[in-house]
Amino acid sequence: MPRHDPDTVSAVLTRGRLGIPAVVFFVVAAAAPLTAVAGGATTGYAVTGVLGIPLAYLVVAAVLALFAVGYVAMSRRIVNAGAFYTYVTRGLGRPAGVAAAIVALVAYNSMQIGLYGVFGAVLSGLLNDRFGMNTTRWLCAVIACAVIAVLGLLRIDLNGRVLAVLLVAECVIALVYDAVMVARPVNDLGVSFDTLAPGNLIGPGIGAALVTGIAGFVGFEGTTVFAEETKDPKRTVPRATYIAVAVTALLYGLSAWAMSVATGPDQIVAAAQTEGTDLIFNLVSPHLTSSLVTLGRWLFITSLFAALLSFHHTVARYAFALGRERVLPSVLGRTSRRTGAPKAGSILQTALAVAVLTGYVLADADPIVHLFFWLTSLGALGVLILMTATSVAVLSYFARIAHRDGMWRTAVAPFLSALALGAILVVTVEQFDALLGVEPTSPLRWVFPASYAVAAATGLAWAFTLRAARPDVYQTIGLGADSATAPLRTPDPVRQPV
Amino acid sequence: MHPHLEPTPARHRQARGSGPDRPALLADEFFLIAHDDQTGRPRLHQSAISHGLAAALLGELAAAGRISFDRGHIYVLDHRTPADPLQHLILDRLVGEPQHTATRTWLSYLAATAHEEVARRLWQAGKVEPQQQRKVLRTVTVHVPTDMNVAAWSWARLSTKLRQYEELDAFDLALAGIAASCRLDQFILDGAPYAVGAHLRRLLAAAPQPMRELLADLDTAIGHTVLSHRT
């Protein structure tokens, strides 16, 4: 329809929409760069013993960029995308959609709860060292959990500007550390590029290294959720997605490599095992003023906190969307009267976190390896499954509709990304013992991946139950907030004018 | 098309009970329910109030027979100018921008200014008085009701009728529907047996089609504000 001028309605609705930088800040904040650099990369070295971590980040980024091609192409056609779950529903049908939703709930909960482990360890370490306090890791984790619970219920998100400042500071400090580490190679042996050699990725740890890489990027898929709030979704969403992947990939790859330069490639695994998340700070502290090192530690903590809050809201919103559809109990689809927070979903997430944390405290497990690394790896495995399913869903979706989008976007790239992600998935599951750092005979290597099989099977069974028992609910699967209109009409989500 | 929401005159019937005269405007009544009847402080979060008010303003035009709702879109039935200046303004905008017909679009558009405009209308009618109140970091304007009995009348009426399992007329049904979409039913039905809530849901399920259309779009709009909330 021709655009009439002056179009006051569009002018009012487009006020305050997000541009590319804002979307990039929001999603990269969820990925928490300093968390991946100081926590993910070092723990990845330590647990998997693989030298190819820097390369893994770059390889994963390439695969994710390929994945993003079809993903953003689909986001142009599906309004109000609830992310993976909506896409899988539209591409592969409602039962697959419910299965994806349950997998997503498990995956994002694991990511979130796993981060409490590293948060508690890092915060208590800093408080004890710097301020002579005598806190324990678990106490700090539980306090963080309480704060997140309150913020979730009050529906407080970190302000966009605050996130931007923190994020830029994180990136700058990571780059400064990288420069220091590369400028001061161990024993003045010169800068070594050994960890970037492709050979490091072939071998028993490749799956583990790649999934560590994916864990660092989780959150980037959020760009499409912002489509409705951007100035120009067709342009903003794809660019923000590619920029987010590229920026984080370069930062992760560079930092992981710089650490190996500073320790020497042959020593990086041993150093990561002994020093853990302190490694990067210990490597730079002889060459920098202590305030810069302390600043880095604080930014590590704020970055973790931003990620914790972001994943908490993600889970609460997922539960809210499913509650609105009545796929999960409709109480999850209610909001708090005073704050508008998805209250039940938020409480549920906190309750789950408290239960898991309690279990870990009772078992006296290690917060970094057993909580942080295991659970975020589990989360990354879930996101990997979701991305693989989404690639197939994109293929299937475009195969069934009339469109004039090019073959590359709608068929070739999704096909290649499904192949690549599927291959990563297979080696990851095969080598899950290496990822967890347990014996190949340990039942844990099967328990973790099997949890997703159970989640998906539960989702499928529930979808078929709904189809038989509550066809009205079955019809609304994948509609999220738009499900309210389903009893009246075929819901046709409205793209707000831009 | 035939407007299903009752036209204006029907709403002037004096309700039973000894309350003050019923205000004739849906958005005014929703505004009064959504704020405390003594202090004027909001009972709901801001986006629910503004979307609820937007729906109530559209409901006023529908009740006046000017527009109707069908399958997610607004249809202008009658271009004649409504007596109320705010309704007049909105109808002019609806007529003037025919490229936008989606109810959701209009809800979002009206939500941007609804609070301010309805507050002004209530102030002009002498029902609220704006007051500056200092909060921790900012000053907020609170619209304090001039007469607590007037302000409390709408929710007291709805609450009583629902608790007695009475039928609601179209005006009260629309008001209760908008309140329920905004979760204000928790407040109106506080302490009532679950059966009362079920009674309200039954009444809303049997509401005229255009009203159900409007309420479904309001639910969707509020759901989206939850899913896309950023600060």
TrEMBL record, chain A:
<feature type="transmembrane region" description="Helical">
    <location>
        <begin position="298"/>
        <end position="320"/>
    </location>
</feature>
<feature type="transmembrane region" description="Helical">
    <location>
        <begin position="411"/>
        <end position="429"/>
    </location>
</feature>
<dbReference type="GO" id="GO:0022857">
    <property type="term" value="F:transmembrane transporter activity"/>
</dbReference>
<feature type="transmembrane region" description="Helical">
    <location>
        <begin position="240"/>
        <end position="259"/>
    </location>
</feature>
<dbReference type="InterPro" id="IPR050367">
    <property type="entry name" value="APC_superfamily"/>
</dbReference>
<feature type="transmembrane region" description="Helical">
    <location>
        <begin position="53"/>
        <end position="74"/>
    </location>
</feature>
<feature type="transmembrane region" description="Helical">
    <location>
        <begin position="95"/>
        <end position="123"/>
    </location>
</feature>
<keyword id="KW-1003">Cell membrane</keyword>
<keyword id="KW-0812">Transmembrane</keyword>
<dbReference type="Pfam" id="PF13520">
    <property type="entry name" value="AA_permease_2"/>
</dbReference>
<feature type="transmembrane region" description="Helical">
    <location>
        <begin position="161"/>
        <end position="181"/>
    </location>
</feature>
<feature type="transmembrane region" description="Helical">
    <location>
        <begin position="368"/>
        <end position="399"/>
    </location>
</feature>
<keyword id="KW-1133">Transmembrane helix</keyword>
<feature type="transmembrane region" description="Helical">
    <location>
        <begin position="341"/>
        <end position="362"/>
    </location>
</feature>
<feature type="transmembrane region" description="Helical">
    <location>
        <begin position="20"/>
        <end position="41"/>
    </location>
</feature>
<feature type="transmembrane region" description="Helical">
    <location>
        <begin position="201"/>
        <end position="220"/>
    </location>
</feature>
<dbReference type="GO" id="GO:0005886">
    <property type="term" value="C:plasma membrane"/>
</dbReference>
<dbReference type="InterPro" id="IPR002293">
    <property type="entry name" value="AA/rel_permease1"/>
</dbReference>
<feature type="transmembrane region" description="Helical">
    <location>
        <begin position="135"/>
        <end position="154"/>
    </location>
</feature>
<protein>
    <submittedName>
        <fullName>Amino acid/polyamine/organocation transporter, APC superfamily (TC 2.A.3)</fullName>
    </submittedName>
</protein>
<keyword id="KW-0472">Membrane</keyword>
<feature type="transmembrane region" description="Helical">
    <location>
        <begin position="449"/>
        <end position="469"/>
    </location>
</feature>
Automatic annotation (TrEMBL), chain B:
<dbReference type="GO" id="GO:0012505">
    <property type="term" value="C:endomembrane system"/>
</dbReference>
<keyword id="KW-0333">Golgi apparatus</keyword>
<keyword id="KW-0472">Membrane</keyword>
<feature type="region of interest" description="Disordered">
    <location>
        <begin position="1"/>
        <end position="20"/>
    </location>
</feature>
<dbReference type="GO" id="GO:0005737">
    <property type="term" value="C:cytoplasm"/>
</dbReference>
<protein>
    <submittedName>
        <fullName>Golgi phosphoprotein 3 (GPP34)</fullName>
    </submittedName>
</protein>
<dbReference type="InterPro" id="IPR008628">
    <property type="entry name" value="GPP34-like"/>
</dbReference>
<keyword id="KW-0446">Lipid-binding</keyword>
<dbReference type="InterPro" id="IPR038261">
    <property type="entry name" value="GPP34-like_sf"/>
</dbReference>
<dbReference type="GO" id="GO:0070273">
    <property type="term" value="F:phosphatidylinositol-4-phosphate binding"/>
</dbReference>
<dbReference type="Pfam" id="PF05719">
    <property type="entry name" value="GPP34"/>
</dbReference>
